[in-house]
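Please check this.
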Amino acid sequence: MPYQNAIEEGSLRIKDPEASADKSALTYDEIVAACMKEEGFEYWPTSEPDEDVTGSEAIDDDKELSKRARDGYGIVLPYDKLYKASSQSLGPNEEYFSMMSDEMREEYTRVLSGTIWDELSAASQTGEEVDWDWRRGGCDGKATHLIEERASQGEQAENAQTTQFDDLIDQMNALPEQIPQDKDWEKVLERWSQCMSSGGFDFSSWDQAQDSIVEEFDTLASEASMDKIAEEGSSADPYKPDKGAYEKLYDREREIAVADWQCQIDTGRAEAERRILYGIEKDFVDTHFESLERMKKWFDAKG
């Protein structure tokens, strides 16, 4: 959008360099590993570095279709990757876990995940209300809390560096949120929904299509959790879902994900999004031209 470069370049100059994120800060997995070690267990960090992908990078449709045919939305893994298919397929944490006794597995799981997930799962069956509490979430809860706390502190530090144009900038950043309210966007969604319907899928949006997989996956996980609770003393793998139902969901995810993207291509979703956003931005510039010009000069002067 016009004026965005001035904001980005100018804001980099006015920010305190020391306010940037601490590069030496521990990752989620490193926090979990330290926490587990304190409780007498080993844990090996498994997180991979985030890929450096810009939001403006165009997506290759053929590659995306191939990726979705293989991975779906990335929600449901192959069943044999949930638990060992062979000793060669195990990562260090899985191999470590597989060598434990049933009693030690239960203790390891308690230390790693706490009791909160069992409480939430049981509450979902009884209708009781249980509030999330990271303190009852084991090392996972502790790591998640520390990461979120760090992110919040970073956001607060950044927000403290205000300018006289912050309200205007907030309005600019919120412009993409207006896309769903555009009448042309409603037509795109309607065409996409009709395209999906012709393939046997009944969804009103691509978000709903993906959410349906998440909901089915959560249902399977919840049922498996309750089954495990009922199997006191069982040596069965914890939280192992029904294989038949799981593999049906695995296939369904990939079918929906491919159909979803193909229908987005066929209905011109990406081009419509660019066109609608361009119109929204143009109207905004026309309405706030004088203020935007003053803002641009102010940020340029910071150079």
The chain is about 65% helix and 0% strand.
